[in-house]
Design brief:
By secondary structure, the protein is of the alpha+beta class. It is 35% helix and 26% strand. The chain has 3 domains: 118 residues, CBS-domain (Roll); 127 residues, CBS-domain, CATH 3.10.580.10; 111 residues, Double Stranded RNA Binding Domain (2-Layer Sandwich), CATH 3.30.160.100. The strands form 5 sheets. A 5-stranded mixed sheet has the order 13-14-15-16-17, with helices on both faces. The radius of gyration is 22 Å and the shape is globular. The N and C termini lie far apart (52 Å).
């Protein structure tokens, strides 16, 4: 079974109402302190918390908290971002689109201006796992869905460095290396626990005095050494099942003791994204709310893939993820992350900007230049090889 065929097997799940998978909501009062909000997130093992605001809902995530300098004096009301909500009839496909677009792990389900519950990426992954258990799936490997070459950090780097990387790159997991070998894993939750006031975490938990700046400690000191790992040739079913059974938000993908990639909830729920009907399977996740912007993204990405297909006939599929990096009034700053997958290679492209049309044009120009360079190099190599021996 190909990725395209696997996509079709999720059609029923994709169109299922989110009400069927409603979970208990994670909320806080608008007057809650940031320390209280962090406490709720940690106690509920959650990444997102919702704050009702007169008909709207604001969300605060672990990544948002990473950007705070002083937890005790910061006000949640200045941090929360207004997010879209779902109703009971919204589909899983719509939920997954918004989760990816707004870089959330949960979304509130509303009825009559009241939060009834939430739908999470974790629950979506569980349902994907259940579908795969009853579906005949061929050899689809972890390497087919993983995010390649994740950002890593050295065991002796400071916690402050990891915090800045997570904040800047908008990620929640950083593998930690020692002598180029996997040492452990640090998450945004681990770092936030370090940032908490001493009375919350306790002095003995880190073995340091109050006067020391905990963020100046080595990241290796808070590393989780029980890292969830699989190999590049393990199956998609294996990684999904392992993450669900171990209640893990990630799985590192290894080859010969080297980190090759990472699979997170976001990588797996991509399977529930929108497929563009073209000769080559094209998948997009996180399409914009505006129908015109969504259609623009689909058509421009499809045009790019069709152009590349003329040059590289062995292209098998293409994926594109759109994420909102920043919102200023009605304007949205996007990150576009594309992967063009062929038999022998994967071409990747990442760009950030305010104008979606311009960003896809820049992607097209960049890939054309990259291809032109490769063709030139091959031609030079061909001329060199054809040169007669002396």
């Amino acid at each position: 079974m190909s990725i395209s065929e696997l996509y079709e097997s999720f059609n029923v799940l994709r169109n299922t109402p989110v009400y069927d998978f409603t979970e208990p909501k994670v909320t806080a009062d608008g007057n809650s302190s940031l320390s209280q909000i962090i406490g709720i997130l940690i106690d509920r093992n959650a990444n997102d918390i919702f704050i009702p605001l007169s008909g709207k809902v604001a969300a605060i995530t672990m990544r948002d908290i990473l950007g705070i300098r002083n937890i005790t004096s910061s006000k949640p009301s200045t941090m929360g971002k207004i997010i879209p909500t779902l109703n009971s009839d919204s589909t899983i496909a719509e939920a997954v689109r918004l989760l990816s677009l707004y870089r959330l792990r949960a979304l509130p389900i509303m009825e009559k201006n009241e939060i009834l519950g939430q739908i999470s990426a974790k629950r979506s992954v569980q349902e994907i796992r259940d579908v795969m258990l009853v579906t005949h799936i061929g050899k689809i490997n972890t390497s087919d869905v993983m995010t390649r070459n994740p950002i890593v950090i050295s065991k002796t780097d400071k916690i402050a460095s990891a915090k800045q990387i997570m904040k800047r790159r908008r990620i929640d997991h950083i593998p930690i290396l020692q002598d180029n070998r996997l040492f452990g894993m640090a998450t945004s939750k681990d770092i936030i626990q370090v940032m908490l006031p001493t009375e919350r975490i306790g002095r003995k938990s880190l073995g340091i005095d109050d006067t020391l700046n905990r963020l100046d400690l080595d990241i290796g000191g808070i590393a989780d050494k029980s890292v969830l790992t699989l190999n590049t040739d393990d199956t998609l079913r294996s990684v999904t099942g392992l993450m669900v059974s171990q209640n893990s938000t990630y799985c590192l993908i290894m080859a010969f003791d080297e980190v090759q990639g990472i699979v997170t909830y976001r990588d797996i729920i991509t399977l529930l994204g929108e497929k563009v009907k073209e000769e080559i399977p094209i998948f997009l996740i996180g399409l914009p709310d505006d129908p015109l912007d969504a259609e623009l993204a689909k058509s421009k990405f499809a045009d790019i893939v069709k152009l590349l297909k003329k040059i590289y006939p062995d292209i098998e599929e293409a994926r594109c993820r759109l994420k909102i990096r920043e919102i200023q009034g009605a304007r949205k700053r996007y990150e576009v992350d594309a992967n063009i997958i062929s038999t022998h290679r994967i071409d990747t492209y990442v760009n950030v900007g305010w104008d979606l049309g311009k960003m896809f044009d820049q992607m097209s120009d960049s890939l054309k230049k990259r291809i032109s360079h490769k063709i030139t190099q091959r031609q030079k190599g061909s001329r060199f090889r054809s040169r007669p021996a002396a």
